[in-house]
């Protein structure tokens, strides 16, 4: 039941980083009289005109091409800075304004498409990226991003076609090669899949699964949408969530996930439900668990320690099916709890019973944080993470408001567990 939110955020990061390092980092076209000497960094210095000054210069000289170009460049740079800080809406606003000035600039369209993609506004992202492609041709960035848009909206065939073009242009680009290989494996499985959808989810399912069962899965997901969304203080995804249900071994083949994995979220919820005619509580729990990862990613933009992410997912999943916390109780007795620092990254490298312990420990700690200090504080923590804060800074902000520190909360939880009690 590993949720690969972390993996997905790496991919997202790669999107942005590739765009940032790969080319379209804009520079000022020409210096205005007030401009500084050689500094083209996006950070304002005393000698460099501010965005507002450039805007005023342009408004005073609307037909001066230099003033117009300088404003556009400054807007693009400001937008890129916002992208780096994961402030996607503010980034989108800068790119939109830049595009109003230069409607034929492929860079403005590409960056606006990138921001829209990160905001999951897939229609707008597709339109902007197609426009960038029409004007500027097939750059690696545009093929890569447009492929991501198709992939995330379940048009895997189109995504593969675009990434094949990108791979021809840059055979050594491993980001492209890895995405392409994964998408091709999916395409093979996808060819024999049935499709279903609701207003919230796009469901694909193996031919071995009856459509009635697929409908039941969609119903459970609808429950998760309502219940988990309510628990998260009214948090709902920006766009429809892709869900892929596998009949059997295809799940492990496509995802490459370990034997113990019963589901995962890597931007799409994936789970195996071979041979079932009903959705048993265990599978309801997996669906609630994986759907929680969707909301955590929505709130934190992928900036979330794995123990917190898994703890939140377990907390929702265990409302549907709650097996005993055997490993946690044994580890507490023997004083062999896993150090929290080892649970910040992926659990996939953990061995044997430590996998279960990692999930149970994460669940118990998160449940304590919520029970003792409320959902409100938890949501504040997640929101601060989503604004790019480190965990320590986000925790200080959220728990400082209630006169606590995360260190003390962690100690309280340890004492509770050591005393054989549960949150
Ligand atoms: Zn998980």
Task: Give the secondary structure arrangement, pairings included.
Elements (H helix, E strand, L loop, with lengths): L4 H18 L28 H10 L4 H20 L3 H14 L4 H13 L3 H15 L3 H13 L3 H14 L4 H17 L3 E4 L3 E5 L5 H21 L9 E6 L3 H6 L8 E2 L3 E4 L8 H20 L5 H12 L8 H8 L19 H34 L4 H10 L5 H13 L5
Parallel strand pairs: 2-3, 3-5
Antiparallel strand pairs: 1-2, 4-5
Helix pairs in contact: 2-3, 3-4, 4-5, 5-6, 5-7, 6-7, 7-8, 8-9, 10-12, 12-13, 12-15, 13-15, 14-15, 15-16
The site of zinc ion has 7 residues, from helix 12 and helix 13.
List keywords for this structure.
globular; Glutaredoxin; Serine Threonine Protein Phosphatase 5, Tetratricopeptide repeat; 423 residues; binds zinc ion; five-stranded mixed sheet; mainly alpha; disordered N terminus
